[in-house]
Amino acid sequence: MPAEAGIQERPQMDKRFYKEEAVDGFTKKFGIKSLVYFEIHENAEAAVTRERRIKKWNRAWKIRLIEEGNSDWRDLYDGLV
User: Fold this and answer.
1) CA-CA distance, 55 to 58, in Å (whole number)?
2) What is the domain extent for residue 58?
3) How far apart are CA 42 and CA 75, in angstroms?
4) pTM of the predicted model, to two decimals?
5) 2 within domain boundaries
């Protein structure tokens, strides 16, 4: 399963990226339909800094980060909106 980091300003409006595959890109290419981890930041600059840091991590670190807060890998999207 691919692990990808990205920024969403309005996750409630971005459901189509995960669920409906309406937009070409990483999520559609790899069939990603679940949101298993997210962070909330004070501003866009902080979010971009964190995203860039996580993108440099190896896969095992990303998986550990997800499993620390969501060991069952359940879809968190519906609870977010």
Assistant:
1) 8
2) 11-80
3) 24
4) 0.72
5) no
